[in-house]
Write a structure and sequence with these properties.
The protein is mainly α and about 70 residues long. The protein is about 90% helix and about 0% strand. The protein is built from two helices and no strands. The protein is elongated, with a radius of gyration of 25 Å.
C-alpha cells in the first residue's frame, strides 16, 4: 500500500515538473502572430462550411432527381 502511494506521488511530481517546464517555455503570441492565426482559422472555417454546404446541396439535388 505504501509503495502504491509512493508511485502515485512520484507520478504527480513528474507531471507537475513537466507542466511547469512547458509553461516556462510558452510565450504570449505577438499581435502579428495572433492576427495570422486568426486569419488562417477563419479561412479554414469558411472552407469547411463551403464544403459542407456543397455536399448537402448535392445530396438534395440527387434526392430530388430520384423522386
Amino acid at each position: 500500500m505504501a509503495e502504491a502511494n509512493l508511485k502515485k506521488k512520484e507520478r504527480a511530481r513528474s507531471w507537475v515538473s513537466e507542466y511547469t517546464r512547458v509553461l516556462k517555455l510558452a510565450k504570449k503570441p505577438g499581435r502579428k502572430e495572433y492576427s495570422l492565426t486568426s486569419k488562417v482559422t477563419g479561412i479554414g472555417m469558411v472552407l469547411i462550411g463551403i464544403i459542407g454546404y456543397s455536399i448537402k446541396y448535392l445530396s438534395v439535388l440527387i434526392q430530388n432527381l430520384g423522386a
